[in-house]
Write a structure and sequence with these properties.
The chain folds into two domains: about 210 residues, Rossmann fold, CATH 3.40.50; about 90 residues, 3-Layer(aba) Sandwich (Rossmann fold). The chain is about 45% helix and about 15% strand.
Amino acid sequence: MTLSAVEILKARKNLEGVAYHTPLTYSKNLSEISGAEIYLKWENLQRTGSFKLRGAYNKIVSLTPEERSKGVITASAGNHALAVALVAKMMNLKAVVVVPEKAPKIKVEQCRALEAEVILKGANYDESVTYCKKMVSETGATYIPAFEDYKVIAGQGTIACEILEEMPDTNVILVPVGGGSLISGMAIWAKTVNPDIRVVGVQSTAAYTMYECFRAKKIVEVPVPPTLADGLAGGISQMTLDLALKHVDEIVLAEEEELKKAILWVLKNERQVVEGSGIVGPATILQRKIRFKPGEKVVLVISGGNIDMELLNLPE
């Protein structure tokens, strides 16, 4: 099976009345810095505070009654777990989420508030996945992948539908990249609508697995040091790498040490709270890591806003 734009259209239909159509706004300050017209797609304002609801809902709504009756289980750095927890609550399903031991407290607390069973296991996302799959074999619960699934990818791709409906003359889309479902789904839709749209993935210098695999054109081992962009840390799948190699133009890195500064800049100038994983797009512009043609219309996906505020060391 391959993933086509038709599946993204189906996902959009599934998400009607469930996912918010998030705002797309012009950034005067980032436009002046870059020389392009910069617009921000605020998925931090999506339900559960990130884009992840789109893929999780599209996957879970596709399950058979038997699969739903077994309950759902997932592993996540936090945002996908939150999305699965909310969808399970909406559908009255039992949910178990496995998250790394150092996952942001805000994400863990919100999962519990949504009545999911939270298991803190593993030093990173990959270790959480290993434990989660062991639980699947023991309990029979239905596994909801964070990114390596066509239904999940199609759900994330609906963001590109919204962007290109509002701004069909978009020239470039910058997308944060973790496991790769977001950029894969969005790139498929964008390239179907207009093959000339430039789709650029963004990671950080501490969370750069897709960057290295994209360069190597194969899955390679990449270290995962501590990072403020926790949602971008960890492995990818052959599925998302293949889609990225087919549909994505390039991947760039933002300096990890400057991410906090970028979060504070957006808080001050755009009046929005953005987590480390979601800030990499603005960070690449503030750090001048990417160049645009004068006047190009560029959309930055702000993928999430679930951050522990004490990480920013703001004054009381």
